[in-house]
Design brief:
alpha+beta, Glutaredoxin, 4 strands, tyrosine catabolism, isomerase, phenylalanine catabolism, transferase
């Protein structure tokens, strides 16, 4: 095995990025040691747009993960890679239908909710309308997720074991609170979020515990 394949993974991350956050959770749950290279989405117009980082991630977004001698982008794809290459401490159920349910929830969040309130979209929406815009799309997505969870949830999103769906859900709840979405209509989402907030892997991945978290945002 080459030295690059044996070296500790490097996660290019932004403290408040929910996409980076879900990968941090998965890495922590699988107990994979990794280093973080912070990429500010704000500083100097966004470090993700610099030529050096564009070589890492042509989409000029976070996260990117350097692991096993490869560079991977897109958070859900990264999490699937971790699951397939490191099946110990699994984050996908064995049951085929339950696996589909995990992917279903991941896709609703990662494709149908989060991108619509992402920084690059909100910049185009404009300061005056961004809160209303984000609330609309998060509320729309949470209605669907709550319905899905009504048939799939046990202690967590799909049954009683933590899965990749939970890795996606918790950061999105944080985003909902950030944009002052009324979460009272979503009791299952809130229950699962409360269940996971004290878990060591989730706590370590929280934005307030990241090396690039501004002091005023730490708690």
């Amino acid at each position: 095995m080459s030295l690059s394949a044996m070296s500790k993974p490097i996660l290019y991350s932004y403290w408040r990025s929910s996409c980076s956050w879900r990968v941090r959770i998965a890495l922590n749950l699988k107990e994979i040691p990794y280093d973080i290279k912070p990429i500010s989405l704000i500083k100097s117009g966004g470090e993700q747009h610099c030529n050096e980082y564009r070589e890492v991630n042509p989409m000029e977004q976070v996260p990117a993960l350097q692991i096993d001698g490869h560079t991977l982008i897109e958070s859900v794809s990264i999490m699937y890679y971790l699951e397939e290459t490191r099946p110990q401490r699994p984050l996908m159920p064995q049951d085929v239908l339950k696996r589909a349910k995990v992917r279903e929830i991941c896709e609703v969040i990662a494709s149908g909710v989060q991108p619509l309130q992402n920084l690059i979209v909100l910049i185009h929406v404009g300061e005056e309308k961004k809160k209303e815009w984000a609330q609309h799309w998060i509320t729309r997505g949470f209605r669907a997720i709550e319905k899905l969870l009504s048939t799939s949830a046990g202690k967590f999103c799909v049954g009683d074991e933590i899965t990749l769906a939970d890795c996606c859900l918790v950061p999105q709840v944080f985003n909902a609170r950030r944009f002052h979405v009324d979460l009272r209509p979503y009791p299952i989402i809130l229950r699962i979020d409360r269940e996971l907030e004290g878990h060591p892997a989730f706590r370590a991945a929280h934005p307030s515990n990241q090396p690039d978290c501004p002091p005023e945002a730490a708690k």
